[in-house]
Amino acid sequence: MISKNVYFITGIDTDAGKSIVTGVLARDMRARGERVITQKFIQTGNTGISEDIELHRRIMGIPLQREDLDGTTCPITFTYPASPQLAAEIDNREIDLSLVEKSTGKLLESYDTVLLEGAGGLFVPLTDTYSTIDYIADHRLPVILVTSPRLGSINHTVLSLEACRARNIEVAELVYNLYPPTSREITEDTRRYLKQYLNRTYPNAGFTEIGMQGV
């Protein structure tokens, strides 16, 4: 279950819907009176304020915060829309992950919970030898994994859950993103299968469904 502290929101692939889910979760937590803020791990294909942070705020129904305007919620941006490793190479810059950690710590001075949205999936490369999952494991961050009912998602979801289990990473929540919609048969069977798999492998993890009607 989602409580207080830092949660890393990742997806089974690039288009799983992480940004929408991050905004919806933050909005719902705020509605319950919780002090929550979102953060973007690394933003590529962007200049200025992170477009994902802007989407979070629109979904949350609040304006850009001072932490957005001063870059705290997204301290690393690259111009080219690619993996962080390639985007950094194209921009001729290094990825300084200490900036992410420092920003998270700063946000926790004002908020109870930080939802840290990743870039792509668990094994998106940050360098030739270091991936997103390494950062998650090194910082012992619980994961909120975003999946969907589209064809192929069972395989990607199970692989992601097994990767977390192999690294002793806690999975706090599996979010079933119902957009874009697919057939009722696939949607219902995928839901059933993933719930059963989650109960066997991460019995304490939550299971949440989000559709466009909730955005």
Could you characterize the architecture of this molecule?
With 215 residues, the chain is an alpha/beta fold. 39% of the residues lie in helices and 16% in strands. It is built from eight helices and six strands. It has a six-stranded parallel β-sheet with strand order 2-3-1-4-5-6, sandwiched between helices. Strand 4, helix 7 and strand 5 form a beta-alpha-beta unit. Helix 1 packs parallel to helix 2 and helix 7 packs parallel to helix 8. The chain is globular. The protein starts with a strand and ends in a 5-residue tail after the last strand. The model has no long low-confidence stretch (mean pLDDT 95).
SSE arrangement:
Elements: E1 5-11, H1 18-31, E2 36-40, H2 51-60, H3 66-69, H4 84-90, H5 98-107, E3 113-117, H6 132-138, E4 143-147, H7 153-166, E5 171-177, H8 184-201, E6 206-210
Parallel strand pairs: 1-3, 1-4, 2-3, 4-5, 5-6
Helix pairs in contact: 1-2, 7-8
- Straight-line distance between termini: 21 Å
Shape: globular
Count of distinct strands = 6
Q: Could you say which structural class the secondary elements and strand pairing correspond to?
A: alpha/beta
Strand coverage percent: 15-25%
| Low-confidence spans | none
How many DSSP helices?
8
Order of helices and strands: EHEHHHHEHEHEHE
Radius of gyration: 16 Å
Largest beta-sheet characterization: 6 strands, parallel
Spatial order of the strands forming the largest sheet: 2-3-1-4-5-6
Average pLDDT rating: 95
Q: What percent of the residues sit in helical stretches (DSSP H or I)?
A: 25-40%
